[in-house]
Amino acid sequence: MPNDPAVAEMIEIADSTAPLRVRGQELLQRLDRWIPSDAAWLALSDPGSNVYATVGSTGLDRSVVDFLDRPSVAQEIQQNGVNRNQPPVSLGELPISFDELPTWANCLVPAGFREGLGVALFEPGGRHMGVLTLLFSSDESPSTETRDRLAHVSPLIARAMSPMRSLLATARLVQGATAGAVLLRDGSTYPLTGLEDHMALCEDSPVVGLAREILLAGEIYRSFMWPTGEDHEATGHMRMTILAATEVPAFVLGMVLLTPDVDCRGLTPRELQVLGLVVEGCSNQQIARRLVVAPRTVAAHVEHVLVKLAASSRTLAAVRAERAGLYVPHLAAGSPR
């Protein structure tokens, strides 16, 4: 990439920890010094609602930005192939004439723009994540130099605006996590780049369903144990950590991380299950019915739990278990919540 002060500043912004929209706005301001344009639009793709969420713009009125955030604009981007991994595409190169494109005919042309140059942005792993469009008042086709410069800088801007970047930074705070999945509001998931896949984190797994329930309830953090196998008496457990998304587009709900081979601090598999129901506020009778055991058996488990957690009451045991993530949600025991 050419040794230009504006590009050096963009690299610095890309590596900063500034909020997503702040990074987007500052990148466009520096970009204008390297590739002059009359306006620019930077947006991230929402795979669930089929819209592009604006994260930065220059030279555009609020009404224009609101128009660009409509689902119909995302449909035009897809129909014209602007979301494909290819060199920047100008307005004149689109398969449909600009006067037949509602976004141009009804919004951009009336706003004073006659030409544009757009490029799709991709995650390092190849997933489409957004678009960057430069707009011009002149109908003159963008020069080869302008195209080359935009092609050179687009991977840098993609890296700077990647939602995965913020998620990975947060994921690294969970010591020992080896696998992870990102949860989107539309109900879908995708792997967390840099971590492994795991069958427990597939889209239709019970732990992902529970994580989605927790995040939709407004919680920002939850940690608990999960059996390593389908056997409810399995001796091995892994830790699941649920984290809400921050500094990412609203269509990203959060993520769930898996840490293998965790220390259960002497608690048996059944005691972990009992603790999960104690955390839910269940009485011994309710726990006995859910686990299909005798109430006296539950009472014995609770006594053992109190000793192992050095707790004087079941309430204190529940507080300590929840804080430490030392319990198995009843959902993991094969019964509905």
Features:
337 residues; alpha+beta; Beta-Lactamase; Arc Repressor Mutant, subunit A; 3 domains; five-stranded antiparallel sheet; 12 helices; elongated
Explain what you see.
The strands form two sheets. The chain has a five-stranded antiparallel sheet with strand order 2-1-5-4-3, sandwiched between helices. Strands 7-6-10-9-8 form a five-stranded antiparallel sheet, sandwiched between helices. It contains twelve helices and ten strands. It has three domains: 5-161, Beta-Lactamase; 163-262, Beta-Lactamase, CATH 3.30.450; 266-337, Orthogonal Bundle (Arc Repressor Mutant, subunit A). Mean pLDDT is 88; it is low at 332-337. It has helices at residues 5-14, 20-34, 62-68, 71-79, 102-108, 144-161, 163-171, 206-216, 269-279, 284-291, 295-308, 314-324; strands at 39-46, 51-58, 89-90, 115-122, 128-136, 179-184, 189-191, 221-227, 237-244, 252-259. It is α+β, with helices and mostly antiparallel strands and 337 residues long. Helices cover 39% and strands 20% of the residues. A hairpin with a 5-residue loop joins strand 4 and strand 5 (128-136). Helix 9 (269-279) crosses helix 11 (295-308) and helix 9 packs across helix 12.
Spans of at least 5 consecutive residues with low confidence: 332-337
- CATH class annotation of the largest domain: Alpha Beta
SSE-based structural type: alpha+beta
The secondary-structure element order is HHEEHHEHEEHHEEHEEEHHHH
Give the proportion of residues in helices.
25-40%
Let me know the average pLDDT. Answer: 88
Mass-distribution shape? elongated
End-to-end separation in angstroms reads 55 Å
| Number of H/I helices | 12
Number of strands: 10
Count of distinct structural domains:
3
